[in-house]
Amino acid sequence: MDAILIQILNGLDKGGAYALIALGLTLTFGTLGVVNFAHGAIFMLGAFCAVLFQNILTFSKKVKDESITFFDAYKEQPYLEIWWGDTGSAIIDYAVPLSILFAIPVMLLIGVIMERGLIKHFYKREHADQILVTFGLAIVIQEIIRHFFGANPIPTPPPDVVAGSAAIGTFLGLNDNLVYPWWRLIYLAFSAIIIFSVFAFLKFTTFGMVVRAGMADRETVGLLGINVQRRFTIVFGIATVVAGLAGVMYAPILPPDYHMGMDFLVLSFVVVVVGGMGSLGGAVAAGFLLGVLQSFASMNEVKAILPGIDQIIIYLVAVIILLVRPRGLMGREGVMDD
Amino acid sequence: MTNFLKSNGVVMLIFATVVLTAPIWLAPIGASYPDLLQKFAIFGIFAIGFNILFGLTGYLSFGHATFLGVGSYTAVWAFKLLSMNVIPAILLGTAMSGVFALAIGYLSLQRSGIYFSILTLAFAQMSYSLAYSVLTPITNGETGLQLSQQDPRIIDGLFGVPVEAGLPSTHLFNISMSGLSGFYFCAVILIIAFYVSLKIFRSPFGLKLRAIKSNQTRMKYTGFNTRPYLLSSFVISGMYAGLAGSLMAVTDPLAGAERMQWTASGEVVLMTILGGAGTLVGPLLGATLIKYFENIFSALNLSELHKIFDGLPDTLENIVVAIINPFVGEGWHLMLGALFMIIVIFLPGGIMEGVSRAFKWIKRILGFDKKQPVVTSNVTPKGEEK
User: Fold this and answer.
1) Contact assessment for residue B216 and residue B43, using Cβ atoms and an 8 Å cutoff
2) A268, B31, B377, B382: which sits with the fewest CB atoms below 10 Å from its CB?
3) Which of A319, A321, A335, A336 to substitute to test the interface with B, most B CBs within 10 Å?
4) Average per-residue pLDDT in chain A?
5) Could you give the dihedral angle defined by the CA atoms of residues A110, A116, A118 and A120, in that order, rounded to the nearest 10 degrees?
6) Which of B60, B111, B130 sits opposite A312 (nearest CB)?
7) Where in chain B are the domains?
8) Can you give the pLDDT at residue B1?
């Protein structure tokens, strides 16, 4: 029971990341009809927003270390600490959550620039061309990041308060040894909040209504005198922000390095396809589902029966679903039906 | 006259001459050493094969590196178990990847468009992960599969080939496969591979593949079952990849799982579209260019850049070097990605389209632009009657 619970939780936080990336992917696909292979790179850029913000906050100056009196010792002290003392160090401690505020405008800007500068020209081109050009873009983004931040993973710790583990076993009245890192719980809650807000936005606002109408029948919405295109550009921006935030919050779980985007991209694409191209609910469901499946497959008991299953389970599920249910779990008729 | 120039025999003659004299005419640009020449030929075969699938049918596979890897592993196993002669290795490598291509292709081709791409990608990732983890007894995991002195080599044993001290090297009936002779061997295979691809391009079979690309629905309505054609083109291109993979093992008897990674699949896609997907020589051209520039640019570093731009005034030199530096050495991939984007955005037909545009432009300038009947396809009606 405990083991199963822990595996489900393990899967859910990874699934949260998959779901957030896949949500953005399928949103761009449903609205703009563009297959965006650079979406994983955007996730990675989000994580590096956290790194950059942390670097800015900890911008330091060499000061004399007063605690050592035998000789002149120097240590790096962040300006924030020098100026604001304890408040400053508290801010540095909360670098990752605070960088969300920093990441939202940055990612929105990146998204809009990307859409206006590149994606716009590819609406009418074949899907193969879209895949290729965004694949190229992903390589470029990735290499630029490597140029500035190096090839090694950069640790970005969560705030001290939530660095430990939550005793969920005690809380649920199960085994006391059942603990789970706080930050992963936060990530799970965070992804749930983001997913709900995206859905609420699309469901309950006029803007969202127009976007949904545009996804269903773009031409008619256009004929009604609504500029669908501009709204779709904004949707692309939103998708970028969602992927970026997924990356920001994932930084403490997996220290960001330049190729984390590619690793997640392949999986997220599988998630989108399994969920059904253009189906938002499907993407979210498939994200969590595949995350949990992957974590169950990495249990030792399972691996003993089927060696190597943890490595391939996602792809295996994708292959089976695509062959049995060609439109994915919740794919709509008429979307990418060739 | 043009018809004569475009006949199979003449095309092959020109092609063979160009390929076999490559060590001579590539010498002035510093690309004439055997390792690089072998790479040109091997990746040329890979790209030519990929083109038979992607260029003709328009099905974008993101998993062709799997077959490259399978070919390599099979070839090394052939060296280990059978003989150091390259013939069994190549035959087995090609056949084995054909079997893999048949299985993967049969499943993947149930779907088309982006679903097909994702399916091939999923299979490729599966094979890659398995090669790294569970299949370690076969693939030797991260270390890569290598020759050893204890290998049985049954056929060699039957013919009483003496066991030498140190690792044996690959050979073709005692002609060593390293250095220039290795290149000539690859070149001959490249010429054969090109000939097969030429025949496919100019056959009714090739025409049908192209018809699938332009309008599959219409093909189906005219009564063709397109699946067998797609599957055979998938298997053929998989076998080309396997051939390329086994040639890699021939020139350097070592196989590693990184050959199967999806970035390797991405590379062959890039080669094909850089040269021009769906053209005969385009993919080979793309493969050669990418390998050549990879070789040159990834070797450059800051001090060498300063040496190259020494002639410029100091400030200008520093600026130029600062701009170029991120693109060379470690940053070669940045250049590759940028190139990828530029080609797709501005020249979707690849270099071959650029060349033909340039030709048209020159013709117009020189006033040769006579009104001629438009020939839309290279395949003559004669091909249909055969």
Assistant:
1) no
2) B382
3) A319
4) 81
5) 140
6) B130
7) 30-261
8) 55
- B255 backbone dihedrals φ, ψ, rounded to 5°: -135, 130
Q: Enumerate the residues of chain B whose CB falls inside 8 A of the CB of residue A152.
A: none
Q: One-letter amino acid identity for B270?
A: L
pLDDT digits (tens, 9 = 90+) for A267-326: 888 888 888 877 788 888 888 888 888 888 877 777 777 777 777 788 888 888 877 877
Domain residue limits, chain A? 2-324
Size of interface A-B (CB pairs under 8 A): 117
Q: What is the pTM of this model?
A: 0.82
pLDDT of A335 strictly over 70: no
pLDDT for the residue B264: 82
Tell me the chain A residues in contact with residue B118 when contact means C-beta distances shorter than 8 Å.
Answer: 269-270, 273, 318, 322
Rounded Cα–Cα distance for residues A64 and A68 (Å): 9
Q: Which residues of A fall within a CB distance of 8 Å from B339?
A: 136
> Minimal Cα–Cα distance from A320 to chain B, Å?
10
Nearest-angstrom CA–CA distance, B242 and B7? 29
Give just the sign of the alpha carbon dihedral A312, A313, A317, A320: positive
What pLDDT, on the 0 to 100 scale, is given for residue B197?
A: 92
Residue A338: its pLDDT value, please?
Answer: 45
| C-alpha pair distances (Å), B369 with each of A44, A315, B372, B375 | 52, 54, 8, 15
pLDDT value of position B146: 79
Q: Are A316 and B132 an interchain contact pair (Cβ–Cβ within 8 Å)? A: no
Could B118 and A318 be called an inter-chain contact, meaning their C-beta atoms sit closer than 8 Å?
A: yes
| Separation between Cα atoms, residue A137 and residue A143, nearest integer Å | 10
Copy the structure tokens of residue A149.
């931040």
Phi, psi of A335 (to 5 degrees): -100, 120
Q: How much is the ipTM here?
A: 0.77
Q: Per CB distance under 8 Å, which residues of B are interface residues toward A?
A: 58, 60, 107, 110-115, 117-119, 121-123, 125-126, 129-130, 132-135, 262-263, 266, 269, 273, 326, 330-331, 333-334, 336-341, 344-345, 348
Q: What local confidence, expressed as pLDDT, does residue B44 receive?
A: 92
CATH 1.10.3470 fits A2-324, yes or no: yes
